[in-house]
From TrEMBL:
Highest taxon above the source species: Bacteria
GO cellular component term of the entry, any: cytosol
PROSITE patterns: DHAK
GO molecular function terms attached to this record: ATP binding; glycerone kinase activity
SUPFAM superfamilies attached to this UniProt entry: DAK1/DegV-like (SSF82549)
Protein name: Dihydroxyacetone kinase
Transmembrane segments: none
Organism: Aeribacillus pallidus
GO BP terms, alphabetized: glycerol catabolic process
Length: 334
């Protein structure tokens, strides 16, 4: 597949360089590690630091959410690969304001290993307290009784939002971790893949699918889903995804939810809004109130076609977190 790149080996470094130059009022690279990016905005002493990160190729995640109300720094990995412990530790040291740092990342083996190593290094070598919350929102990736084995996909956005707000409100390290974990427990997502992406290093499709096919439950890196079959109309796709989510989490009449319809990279906004239209109808019919809605490309997979639906069940505390203002290069909420 065609790519507007130079040398495939340097694509991540060149992307980071361009991003930092595009948004110097928001972010900067740390001189000791080019994969470590932190906010340029002044943060107060005693604030818990929020560190997110993961592989490249999911833009605007993860770099796009460093700013006021969300993350204080990000560690950037290779395409679809975890960052190494070194940039994670560099960001940790840079954003620690004396109250510790919370690591937020998806449930992938490489991330679990490398963020875990960085946490040990921060605590043993730098005397920085680190808390961790891992996102496990993808209902297609493991049964309900094995939720701890599930992948983190677009629901990570809501976890970052909740944790960033809690840190701004002055919660201590343990409380920020509690809020992040509470958010994760109340989030479910499921996606559909329509077309593959291709890695710059190979130019080959990440998975095989026919022009008239779709795959339910496909992962953000092209991990196999739970069912491949003929392409269905948008309403039928939305019905399937929403019903699978509602079978997995108890959301009743009168409950409030935040909804995210997330594009995977190449799906037009027209199609995302058609999906949201159906989601709103399905929830309204069940007496479930949409408290806030988000539609767009929040966590992508290069140029993959398809989308995911995320529901976050809200209570008074989580409403407060979702309402908190955010000002980042890729997401602003007033």
């Amino acid at each position: 597949m065609k790519k507007l790149i130079n040398d495939p080996k340097n694509v991540v470094e060149e992307m980071i360089e361009g991003y930092v130059k595009a948004y110097p009022d928001y972010v900067k690279q740390l001189p000791e590690n080019k994969r470590a990016i932190v906010t340029t905005r002044k943060t107060r002493e005693g604030k818990v630091g929020i560190l997110i990160g993961g592989g490249s190729g999911h833009e605007p995640a993860f770099m796009g959410y460093v700013g006021e109300g969300m993350a204080d720094g990000v560690a950037v990995g290779n395409i679809f690969a975890s960052p190494s412990p070194e940039p994670i530790l560099a960001v940790t040291k840079a954003i620690d304001k004396g109250a510790g740092v919370v690591y937020l990342y998806g449930n992938y083996a490489g991330d679990v290993m490398n963020f875990g190593m960085a946490a040990e290094m921060a605590e043993l070598d730098e005397d920085i307290c680190v808390g961790t919350a891992i996102t496990t929102d993808d209902v297609a990736s493991a049964p309900k009784e094995e939720k701890g084995k599930r992948r983190g996909i677009a629901g990570e956005f809501f976890v970052w939002k909740a944790a960033g707000a809690a840190a701004d409100f002055g919660y201590n390290l343990d409380e920020v971790v509690r809020v992040a974990k509470k958010a994760n427990e109340n989030i479910r997502s499921m996606g559909v893949g329509l077309t593959p992406c291709s890695l710059p290093q190979t130019g080959k499709p990440s998975f095989e699918i026919g022009d008239d096919e779709m795959e339910i439950g496909l992962g953000h890196h092209g991990e196999p889903g739970i069912e491949k079959g003929p392409l269905k109309p948008a309403d039928e796709v939305a019905d399937r995804l929403v019903n699978e989510i509602l079978e997995d989490i108890e959301i009743e009449e009168g409950d409030k939810v935040a909804v995210l319809v997330n594009g995977l990279g190449s799906t037009p906004y027209m199609e995302l809004f058609i999906i949201f239209r159906r989601v709103e109808k399905l929830l309204s019919e069940r007496g479930i109130k949409i408290y806030r809605s988000y539609v767009g490309n929040y966590i992508t997979s290069l140029e993959m076609g398809g989308c995911s639906i995320t529901l976050m069940k809200l209570d008074e505390e989580l409403e407060k977190m979702i309402d908190h203002p955010v000002n980042t290069p890729m997401f602003v909420q007033k």
